[in-house]
Specification:
The chain is an all-alpha fold. The protein contains 3 helices and no strands. The termini are far apart.
């Protein structure tokens, strides 16, 4: 399957064949089981104060949560367009 054959958004779920989903599933399982991604020394700042490290970790966690919300909103918007094409929610705004 070519990238040009895969539509954007939620419609891509049905375009990916079963073996493609199996590859994704088993890759995630292998990474989780064997820990291929982990505690890397590259990118760590030597001599970082523990308070500053905690602040940076909290900031990264916050940005990750914001990114998850953004992806969920993109999926919601795309699925809404599948249900009723052309609906963007602007018809019922209170101004």
């Amino acid at each position: 399957i070519k990238f040009a054959d895969v539509p954007n958004g939620v419609a891509a779920i049905n375009a990916i064949p079963f073996l493609g989903w199996a590859q994704i599933f088993f890759l995630i399982g292998a990474v989780d089981y064997w820990g291929a991604f982990g505690n890397f020394e590259i990118g760590k700042v030597p001599g970082l104060q523990p308070e500053y490290l905690e602040r940076r970790q909290l900031s990264e966690l916050t940005h990750g949560r914001l990114a998850m919300l953004a992806v969920l909103e993109l999926l919601r918007h795309d699925s809404q367009n599948l249900v009723s094409p052309g609906f963007d929610g602007l018809d019922h705004l209170i101004t």
